[in-house]
Write a structure and sequence with these properties.
With 157 residues, this protein is an alpha+beta fold. It has one domain. The chain has 2 helices and 6 strands. The protein has a 4-stranded antiparallel β-sheet with strand order 3-2-4-5, covered by helices on one side. Strand 2 and strand 3 form a beta hairpin. The radius of gyration is 20 Å and the shape is elongated.
């Protein structure tokens, strides 16, 4: 009799663990992807908006882990003498409305520039009827910053 009472709870906990694992796995994917994009962009001397669009379109089409909402903002920043940063350029791809402000820059010295890649990717609940109270879609954000490798500041045209 006790088993009949505990069994539904055990099934529910197993399904919750599966969904939590999937969210953690998607977050790890986003972190690796933003780091790879930051590294690729930082190895250029100059970029065009069409090059960035082609690269991000290929990324979006290449991975099964890309959700229905996908957006990337790539920007270049330089540190000023007072410790603040100046935005040099920014390029958006996809839905970036939920990314927010540029608040993920690492500490830097005067004159240093950084390429910041901010990424948002959705995860759709695979068990919507059973775990509906947890939400249908989660927005998973990640960011990565890299210093330009070949030049002081990467230009965008």
């Amino acid at each position: 009799m006790e088993f009949a009472l505990i069994f539904p709870l055990l099934i529910f906990l197993i399904l919750m663990a599966f969904v939590c694992f999937e969210i953690i796995r998607r977050d790890a994917f986003n972190n690796r992807l933003s780091g790879a994009l930051s590294d690729v962009v930082s190895r250029n001397e100059a970029l065009t908006r069409s090059e960035l669009d082609r690269m991000l379109s290929a990324v979006e089409q290449s991975f099964d882990e890309i959700g229905s909402t996908f957006g990337v903002r790539i920007s270049s920043h330089i540190y000023e003498q007072n410790g603040s940063t100046t935005l040099l350029w920014s390029h958006n791809y996809g839905d970036v409305s939920e990314i927010g402000n540029f608040d993920r820059l690492p500490p830097g010295s005067t004159g240093e520039s950084y390429i910041l890649v901010e990424l948002i990717n959705s995860y759709e609940n695979i068990l919507p009827g059973l775990l509906e109270y947890m939400g249908q879609v989660w927005m998973i954000k990640s960011s990565s910053a890299s210093r330009p490798r070949l030049v002081g500041v990467i230009s965008l045209t």
